[in-house]
Amino acid sequence: MAETEATLLRQFPLFLPQNRAKTVYEGFISAQGRDFHLRLLLPKDLQLRNARLLCSWQLKAVLNGYHHIVQQEVALKNKKEPYVLPPPPKFYSSLIGEIRALGWDKLVYVDPCFSPIKLKADVSGREHLITVKLKAKYPAESPDCVVDFPVPFSVSWTPQVTDQPKIDAKVVPLPSSLISIYSQFLAALESLKTFWDVMDEIDEKTWVLEPEKPTRSATARRIVLGNNISINIEVDPRHPTMLPECCFLGADHVVKPLGIRLSRNIHLWDPENSLLQNLKNVLEIDFPARAILEKSDFSMDCGICYAYQLDGAIPDQVCDNSQCGQSFHYICLYEWLRGLLTSRQSFNIMFGECPYCSKPITLKMSGRKA
Ligand SMILES: [Zn+2]
Ligand SMILES: [Zn+2]
């Protein structure tokens, strides 16, 4: 019997090898009257001092304060990542205190190593998440925060100074913690509330073609206006009720009148109204709801490959013939026109026939690779 195996069996009888090579052990250890699950990964040479110890965060919390003892006694050291020192016990104790102060109900997820931590906030009926990636030197070092925002989010961080003599608390700003990150997160959510109200109304009351499942950071929407016609809007998250960047997609004879209406009615735009209401006012239209238009009435599929999505692209070329109005993927129409002997090219425009109605169709090639 190998020496390591014997040692393990003697000291931890509840530990059992999990594989033939005996590099993985799993079992339980008892501490404070509770059993904790533990996983031990040994290196190829089976030397205990190079082993990795994986345990639940509950156990880490219990071991908190005994870290140096665990290291000495079991001589476990993480040699795989020699440059990452395990965080000091204070790391865990201060974190648990911070989460408790914040409220455990805000905690969505915590890694066994306490990083990342996921927190949630409910604002105006919407749930938002923030992922906090703590560094080993936390709280001396600012953590990285990941959020689903349409604007950059950076936290201001006042590191905790522990080695310096205590100065009057009134002079020194309070050191940052999870709580201050969370309150900055809430403030940012509040400042973006109108933007999400605007986007939610669009997603709820119109037929959005793109993106299919908008994230909270998505500022663009492609909305159905009617048969084979849509509008792409790009909303400014800082000024969500102002006129967004608009781009119409569809046959010329339908798109042109819409553009004229937009510039004629622009004075009707009132930032006090919602963006959707303003769009209705200036375009003099009602947005069809998804349920009203039948799929057969509104075929957005490409007339060449019969698919909607093709390598992430959707059909954005439309036949101008009002009797036809068929849509195509750019790449499909490009390949089609290139294969026709009757097609011709002038500068960056390809002229040819629509594969559906045989009427003239054009394809602008500027700025796009085919
Ligand atoms: Zn296609
Ligand atoms: Zn056509």
From TrEMBL:
<protein>
    <submittedName>
        <fullName>FA complementation group L</fullName>
    </submittedName>
</protein>
